[in-house]
Amino acid sequence: MGEFWPVPDVLAYLAGSWRVARAVRDLTSGAEGRFTGTTTFSPLDDGGLLHHESGTFTWQGVPRPAERTLRFLPGPGSSPGTADVRFADGRPFHDLDLTSGHHVADHPCVADLYRGEFTVRDQDHWRTVWRVGGPAKDLVLTTDYAREG
Q: At residue 12, what are phi and psi to the nearest 5 degrees?
């Protein structure tokens, strides 16, 4: 499968700053949006990483500032290739295992299901594709990350 780049230590791989480009498509309405900005993974006291994303989200031609914060904590067991991803308030979001360079994670949210596919291309590039489906949502969010510096 030469298209994936295995990651033996996910927290070490993610640490630092990344340029972010995200395309958002509403499959029901056909509306499209775009986010551009940066994501910084900085050390937490507990050995994990604080993920802070900030930039501009443009939806239907209207730009707005946008940001989010997540916590990437060491995964269960002894594998440094895994992480436990949580929202800023500590609620669980999804698991992450990049030891093969590819991972699929689910996050149920009320009546919607978020399914994320994570693909590592090389030491400086990775991608997520989130498919969001439910009674009120039918979205695809594709995010490309490129290491800064």
A: -65, -40
